[in-house]
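Handout, section B. The chain below has 253 residues.
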Amino acid sequence: MTIYAIGDIHGQIDLLDGALARIAADGGRDGPGGPDEVIFTGDLVDRGPEARAVIDRLITGRAEGRNWTILLGNHDRMFRRFLENARLDDPAIKSGAPWTHYRLGGCATLESYGVATGPDRSVADLHAEAREKVPQAHRDFLDGLPLWAERDALLFVHAGIRPGIALEAQDEQDLVWIRDEFYAETGPHPWLIVHGHTIVDEVSHFGNHIDIDTGAGHSDGPRFLSTVAFEGADCAVLTSAGRVPLAPGQAAE
């Protein structure tokens, strides 16, 4: 069995299709009855222009019987909260910017559903139109996303964990937002943790965690959606030329 992990997609349908194509070229057997699994580490939406198409692709894949596990990211949760109660803030956003600010990218997600945005639109107007235009199937999908996937010696999560806290006692806010306290821990965790959320130039193995968010949602540099294959705890990055093994202390070239 191979476990594949795909990093933060951020509304980039073409990059998602490329990642799935690399898995197919690697011989991935994640279809109905296949032994392999694909785990998406969250942040499916925001910043990129095609959040709706990304969610459609993921819903369709699961409906076809693909062995896909899709985790909740902080941007997915912000989108879900906005649909629930028009909430735009989160205490983890140090700048205090609302979800609709261009740096967070909420308007791009709303626009992918045909919601008109702009400085003249009130939050109430945006919320009402979003509730009308975002399909119930998409809202149900967001509501059902898990926070982690534990696979033997591997733990897949969006942002990381708070060191020293049992998995069942972890705070959801940490699982989708944590950075500094997680990165500061250099000792072993109960698992090798595979995550996104914090952008790195290349997929990077820090010994106790592997960061696979290579900035698919950002315009200030190369955009790439990384895909990683695991055979047990052995890790390789999928490239157009095939697998590139990744060992502790390495970044994929």
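Note. Residues 13-25 form the longest helix (13 residues). Compare this with the example in section A.
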